[in-house]
Amino acid sequence: MSDIVVSVKSLEKTYRTESESLTILRDLNLEIEKGKKITIVGESGSGKSTLLNIIGGLDSPTSGNVKCGQYDLSSLDEKKLSEYRSHFLGLIFQFHYLLKDFTALENTFLPSIMAGLPKKKAVQKATQLLKDVGLENRLDHLPSQLSGGERQRVSVARSLMNDPQLILADEPTGNLDPENAKMIGSLLFSMVEKYQKTLLLVTHDVNLAKKGDLCYSIKNGKLELV
Amino acid sequence: MNLTIKSSLSWIFFVSRRFAKVDRKGSSAVTRLLASLGICFGVMTLITVISVMNGFQHSFIDVIMEISSYHIRVEGGNKDFEDFEDFAASEKSIRSLTPFYEAQSLVLGSSGKEAAAMIKALPPTVYNDDAGFKKNVDIFSGAFDLDSPNSIVIGSELARRTGSRVGGQISLYALSGGNDVDLFSSERLFTVTGIFHTGYAEINASFAFIGIEDGQKYFGSDAKLIYGVKLFDENDDSREISRIQEKFPQIKCESWKNYNRSFFGALRVEKNMLMFLVFLIFVVVAINIFNGMRRMVFERREEISLLTAFGGRPASIKSIFIMQGLLTGISGAIPGVILGLFLSINMETVFILLSKLSYYASLFAVMLVNPENGDFVRENPMFLLYAGIPPKIFLGEVVMIALFGIFSSLLASLLASRGILKMTVAEVLRDE
After folding, report:
1. What predicted TM-score, i.e. pTM, was given to this entire model?
2. From B428, which residue of chain A is nearest by alpha-carbon distance?
3. How far is B405 from chain A (nearest CA, A)?
4. Any idea where the domains of chain A sit in the sequence?
5. Do the chains contact at A116 and B1, CB–CB below 8 Å?
6. Inter-chain CB pairs, A–B, below 8 Å
7. What is the pLDDT of residues B288-332, one digit of tens each?
């Protein structure tokens, strides 16, 4: 069985408006082995988030091929795409994107019950993960009752709920103060290490990027090893 | 982890319940409350209107079937009628069997006034033998007495038109029938023994009953003996006609549905039109729900995108909003049914109350403007007339109305949720 978790070949993404077209990613290639922690740095607008969205099945490429595990994203129907997002991926965004009407615990276990795990088991697992990220006393708090760092810790816990093979983190510390950013960065890498996940992280933070096994820079729509 | 229907519904219910709970505050709550109230009002109104309409229509449908058309009219079997009577007596679905003749005539009262009438020649014992007939023929002057030859019982309005009263005499001329029936005959002089009143004005104005022997005597050789069959269940007519015709092929049977086709058809059209007009309430409510739901979908686009990002299928996410519509529909329809049934059952009290209210309002207005005319204020007779109509509630109609209320809400939310995720998840999250 191949150890390649992500395989991106000749990827191109062009945004077209009525007056212009802008190519963000061009002939981009990337392979990520199982268990590796890959980081990507780049300027704003360089296409980091776009790459992550395409790998996450949240956006579609203009051309090229993206294969993650057994999923060839270009040929997935709606049902398979949902299965891919639900079972293969863990997502962490720059903004925490927690559901505002649900508690920390509910936000954490929701992806699991959406994937078919019985609620009782999902609650047990979510409680453990929130304990791992140091939020055992915040289970019943709504996002509005949590600090920015705490919200992002809930996001980290949520991303691990469905035992995904790949975690995509889109500038997880970009919206935090330096102290919290450092703490969340360390937490994320330690959790990924603990649960033996593959990580693809894009960030502005060079110090955070250095924690990866491999660090790429994205320039002119292509990846360069740093 | 296997995604079964049960597990899918589990999270859809979970999210839907939470959205509903949160939406109990603010403008969404007002929209939902108004939508539920609209459905409640629509269901209540429709049940009340239809039950009153049913009561009103059945008050004379029953009269027609008990006095005029019967459930099955059987004719053409003069030779076999003895066997037919035995057969009818053994049939468990037949409630009563009445032989009769009928002919049209001009009725001339002793005062010289005349009116057209349907003369029905019945066995003198029919009033006591046929409970349904007795129930619908209310004798308010004299008695239903056809024992003596040349006795006649006439409708109240016919009596008024011909200036007849009990003990008075009337003659029948221009009787329909064959050549052997004289146009004018001094023999056809009848004594009024009773005046009846029914719930259907047309029968009061144009029906008269004579004894069956007088009918045989006066209606001529062409007069056909007809048997009126009444069933325990009026809708058993087709089955019973098949049984009769299987046994007596030469006998001609006509169902009440066919005999009264045009009249009952008109009643049905009237009822359907009324239902259609009241159903428009649901259309207005559905548009309201649609708009509210569209706004809710737009306001929750970030949550929708997140649920999609975590593996929620678009159909499942739509179900969350459809569930909201279903809840709105159910929360409106259930109290609507309860209120509608309550109002229908207590319709008499409601109309009497309305009558009193309208009386006191009129009295107050008159006393305010012209106190000396206060004695002339009367209760509105229309309300009292309506109060006398017994409402008739059919379970099937109540269920249909309630389901329509729920369905209108469901359809509105289904249409509103169609636009979910027209933008890609990445676009929504980037915009946020």
Report:
1. 0.71
2. A58
3. 30
4. 34-62+70-225
5. yes
6. 82
7. 888 888 888 888 888 888 888 888 888 888 888 888 888 888 999
Q: Is the dihedral of CA B301, B307, B313, B317 positive or negative?
A: negative
CA distance A224 to chain B (A): 25
Distance of alpha carbon B427 from alpha carbon A92, whole angstroms: 16
DSSP-assigned letters across all residues of A140-154? T--GGGS-HHHHHHH
With residues binned 3-state (H G I as helix, E B as strand, rest as coil), the percentages for chain B, rounded to 5, are 60, 15, 20
Place of tokens 């349904």: B132
B residues 21..80 contacting A (CB < 8 A): 21-22
- Chain B hits for A120, Cβ within 8 Å: none
* pLDDT score, position A125: 92
Q: What is the pLDDT of residues A27-84, one digit of tens each?
A: 899 999 999 999 999 888 888 888 998 998 888 899 999 999 889 988 888 888 888 9
Separation CA A165–CA A151 (nearest Å)? 23
Nearest Cα of chain B lies from the Cα of A37 at a distance, in angstroms, of 22
A214/B187 Cα distance (integer angstroms): 123
Q: Which of B103, B137, B127 is nearest to B117 (CA)?
A: B103
Does residue A118 sit in helix, strand or coil? Answer: coil
CB of A62 closer than 8 Å to CB of A22: no
- Helical (H) or strand (E) element with B282: helix B261-299
CB contact under 8 A, B312 and A82: yes
**Would you say residue A104 has pLDDT above 90?**
yes
Chain B touched by A94 (CB under 8 Å): no
Cα–Cα distance measured from residue B46 to residue B283, given in angstroms and rounded to the nearest whole number: 13
Per residue in A170-224, pLDDT (tens digit) is 888 887 888 888 888 888 898 888 888 899 999 888 888 888 899 999 888 888 8
A111/B311 CB distance under 8 A: yes
Query: Does the CB of A82 have a partner CB in chain B at under 8 Å?
Result: yes
Q: What is the CATH number of domain A34-62+70-225?
A: 3.40.50.300
Q: Is B367 helix (H, G, I), strand (E, B) or coil?
A: helix
Q: Which pLDDT tens digit goes with each residue over B35-88?
A: 888 889 889 988 998 898 888 888 778 888 899 889 999 987 566 677 888 888
Least Cα separation, residue B304 to chain A (angstroms): 10
Which among B312, B313, B429 has CB closest to A97? B429
Question: Chain B residues with CB inside 8 Å of A49's CB?
Answer: 430
Q: Mapping DSSP to helix (H, G, I), strand (E, B) and coil, where does residue A210 land?
A: coil
B7 CB neighbours in chain A (<8 A) are: 113, 116-118
Q: Are A127 and A158 in contact (CB under 8 A)?
A: no
Average pLDDT over residues B335-364: 89
Instruction: For residues B223 and B220, give the distance between their C-alpha atoms in angstroms, rounded to a whole number.
Output: 6
Q: Do B307 and A117 touch (CB under 8 A)?
A: no
At CA B430, angle to CA B427 and CA B432, rounded to 5?
Answer: 110
What whole-number distance in Å separates Cα of residue B243 and Cα of residue B246? 5
Q: Which residue has the tokens 């408006």?
A: A17
For the question of an ipTM over 0.90, the answer is no
> In Å, how far is A164's CA from the nearest CA of chain B?
11
Of B10, B14, B425, the CB nearest to A58: B425
Rounded to an integer, what distance in angstroms lies between the CA atom of residue B353 and that of residue B357?
6
Whether residue B256 lies within 8 A of chain A, CB to CB, comes out as no
Q: Which amino acid is at B327?
A: L
